[in-house]
From TrEMBL:
Chain coiled-coil ranges: none
Entry protein name: Glucose-1-phosphate adenylyltransferase
Reaction(s) the record says it catalyses: alpha-D-glucose 1-phosphate + ATP + H(+) = ADP-alpha-D-glucose + diphosphate
Gene Ontology MF annotations: ATP binding; glucose-1-phosphate adenylyltransferase activity
Binding site for alpha-D-glucose 1-phosphate: Y116, G181, E196, K197, S214
Higher taxonomy: Bacteria, Pseudomonadati, Pseudomonadota, Betaproteobacteria, Nitrosomonadales
Amino acid sequence: MDTQQSPQPNYYPRFVSAITRNTLALILAGGRGTRLKHLTDWRAKPAVPFGGKFRIIDFALSNCVNSGVRRIGVVTQYKAQSLIRHIQRGWSFLDGRFKEFVELLPAQQRTEETWYQGTADAVFQNLDILRSHNSDYVLILGGDHIYKMDYGRLLAEHVEKRADLTVACVEIPVSEASAFGVMDVDDNWRITAFTEKPEHPPSIPGQPDLALVSMGIYVFNAKFLYEQLILDHDLEHSSHDFGKDLIPSLIKNANVYAHRFQNSCVNMASGTPYWRDVGTVDAYWEANIDLTTITPDLNLYDEDWPIWTHQEQLPPAKSVFDDDNRRGQALDSMVSGGCIISGATVRRSLLFSNVQVRSFGTIEDSVILPNVDIGRHAYLKRVIIEKSCVIPEGLRVGFDREEDQKRFYVTENGVTLITPEMLGQRIHQIR
């Protein structure tokens, strides 16, 4: 085999234990994700489709299930209907008889007449629910990143160091660190400073080009968390956010440690821990297109650490016609179930389910979301097409930036985003 994408043998040692079974995971999935522009006009960022058949939140949920953390709450707020429906359809297999569940926690003004005011407040407003589960540890997760991580290893390290709070961290270029919480650590990886989105991020000692940033993944001792949430709630000038308020206030007075992602990352195809914040249109396009390469950085062909999702019952993908000027073919591409490539050429692209590409067209370097119908003689390059678009016959996009900007959204890197609304089409369905 000349690729690392093939199914892997079942060899990965998981850290499933009494610790993971006594952990409650909370996935914070209420954010809009404004930098994704029109992709989040009708859905929260965690509900955005990714990788041909998944949604972004499937990665955090799958990490929980694979790690043995099977008591999970999903905190929702912004335009959550598609997210709620996805979880109801795809994540109902956990067995409540064994106290396994995925529980939806929508914003419902449980403590006062306000919606969630920050990440810490979102947890505080569900404090009675958290207490009812009687967990020893609470694992706080974001629902909007792409990665594979064994939370069992993170939890084991948290217990071993007798930490009150452990923050999972990853090393990224200093030039990109201003968008994250950045931390300093001592020789024992105890956090000595934590700054949320600093203008001038500090670098790792001895590695001037790298910064240590928070992944937005926290492990708390449950009782300690509840006490700190109540204290933070009573602070008049707090924004009630983990990164801005809660964690910086705990650095001097509690045992707060950093956990290196490389110690718990699962199946690193390139040897480098894979963690992507697909929070911009360019980053989203790049992460999806990377999956079409021979050996992508993210291994989706890993039987030992599968990514679970709602699985539609669809026919296999097919291509039809084999004439010289009308050949249905997909080259260096990923094509999902229900797709028909009818006398067209698809290169270096990712097609989600139920996409139809009609004759004499060419699709290159593009991400096509579900239920898109692409008309004849369409030439599309470096585009993202939103769900349920009907692309008119003869449309050319990706060849004249000035012309494309008149109708569509074009990023700084020249990726064009097309939605039904931009095409004058009204879609009456949940996205």
